[in-house]
Specification:
about 75% helix; about 425 residues
């Protein structure tokens, strides 16, 4: 077996293992918290976890295989410093990609291994943090970010103690992203994804922030099963929500260049996000889960919604764009836009469910107080979007682009020289 094929096989197995790790952790947590009877409850949890994780593992294998088919021949001949330099060059915009081959040519002249690592690390630092056109602008932006963090600490400490950690992490992340954007602006430039996508993302993040602040002010805690008070937004949940909102906002305002060229993918992403959130609201109001005894709230929609929206939507985007990338970019935009909107819809419906006595939105359990929905709204939509919707989108994109890939393979076979 050649080195290229061997590395491709090892890398594919590693990608599958990485994709399976979150599901193994979920199984361990659920098995630990499961009730002792019946005896086969751990096996049942393992079966459902395996079913839930299969799309993610298949998606990881397909993505690795598609990427390695293009880059494997070149990367298999590189050593560690070469891999580091290639990874750093991949972060550059298209109009700066010539810098990567130039640095790779310089690296070939360096023979000493420690010197090669130092040279590659220096190039990687320059690629990730290129010299700015104005150090003063970077300093001012960093100072403003530090001032915003201090102001957030003072304001939340006085007016919203339950949201202090969330505000500090969110403001700190946004300040860091703004400083990095200013530092890279001269080299990378600025390109917006379009008013429709940016406006939808801003609306989702703003609405999500508004509902989060309302819950932290009005429902900072709730009654647990044992009647002990529980915090509505624990520290880990606060950090996860802040990272998710900052990431969505950063991608909407300053996305990477490789997400921008496909305009059709952006519109497919917008349509899928709206359809996914609209289906959630429609299911919550018309189907009304949680009203009948034994129902499981909106958990069923978290399974079925991506199957009905993300999977066929990504396949259609790939078929229309005639490429795997079109489906992948459409799925990525759908998940980015749907994350804050789905959290907002969850929190809005939680108020209605509490008024009519239908319990928590997740499973209809109650009465524990409406504050229990804040943590559920953060964890469950984000988990299902990352571990279920994204893999389904990859599978849909692969299915939708199959005919186009087959046609290109036939054309290449005709053009290949015959012996």
């Amino acid at each position: 077996m050649s080195r290229t094929r061997r590395l491709g096989l090892v890398g594919g197995l590693a990608a599958v293992a990485v994709a399976a790790t979150p599901f193994a952790c979920l199984w361990a947590l659920q098995a630990r918290d499961a009730e002792p009877p019946p005896a086969n409850v751990v096996l049942d949890i393992a079966i459902w976890t395996a079913v839930f994780g299969t799309p993610a593992m298949l998606a990881a294998w397909l993505l690795w295989r598609a990427w390695w088919r293009q880059a494997g021949q070149r990367l298999s001949a590189l050593d560690g410093p070469g891999w580091l330099l290639a990874a750093a060059a991949a972060t550059l915009p298209v109009d700066r990609r010539h810098w990567g081959p130039a640095m790779a040519a310089e690296l070939t002249q360096v023979q000493d291994r420690p010197a090669r690592w130092r040279f590659a690390a220096g190039c990687a630092r320059t690629a990730l943090f290129p010299p700015s056109g104005s150090r003063a602008a970077v300093s001012v932006t960093g100072a403003l970010a530090a001032g915003a963090i201090a102001a957030a600490a003072v304001l939340t400490g006085a007016a919203l103690p339950a949201g202090r950690l969330f505000a500090l992490v969110l403001v700190g992340l946004l300040g860091g992203l703004a400083t990095l954007a200013v530092a890279r602006s001269r080299w990378v430039g600025w390109t917006a994804p379009g008013p429709a996508l940016t406006g939808l993302a801003l609306a989702g993040v703003t609405a999500c922030l508004g509902f989060t602040i309302y819950y932290l002010a009005e429902h900072p805690s709730y009654g647990g099963v044992d009647r002990a008070a529980a915090v509505s937004l624990p520290p880990v949940t606060a950090v996860v929500l802040a990272v998710a909102l900052a990431g969505c906002l950063g991608l909407a305002l300053r996305p990477p260049r490789w997400l921008l060229p496909d305009r059709k993918a952006r519109w497919f992403g917008i349509a899928m996000a709206v359809a996914l959130v609209g289906g959630f609201l429609l299911d919550a109001r018309l189907v009304q889960p949680g009203r009948n005894p034994g129902s499981h709230g909106m958990m069923g929609y978290l399974f079925n919604g991506p199957l009905l929206v993300i999977l066929p939507g990504s396949a259609l985007a790939a078929a229309v764009g005639r490429s795997l990338r079109s489906g992948l970019w459409a799925c990525a935009w759908a998940v980015v836009l749907a994350a804050p909107l789905l959290i907002t819809a969850w929190l809005a419906e939680a108020l209605h469910w509490d008024q009519v006595g239908r319990g928590a939105v997740l499973d209809g359990a109650g009465p524990m107080g409406v504050g229990v929905n804040l943590g559920d709204a953060v964890w469950w939509p984000l988990l299902f979007l990352a571990l279920w919707a994204l893999p389904l989108g990859v599978l849909g994109a692969a299915a939708g682009s199959w005919r186009a890939r087959r046609r290109r393979s036939r054309q290449q076979a005709r053009l290949a020289p015959t012996a």
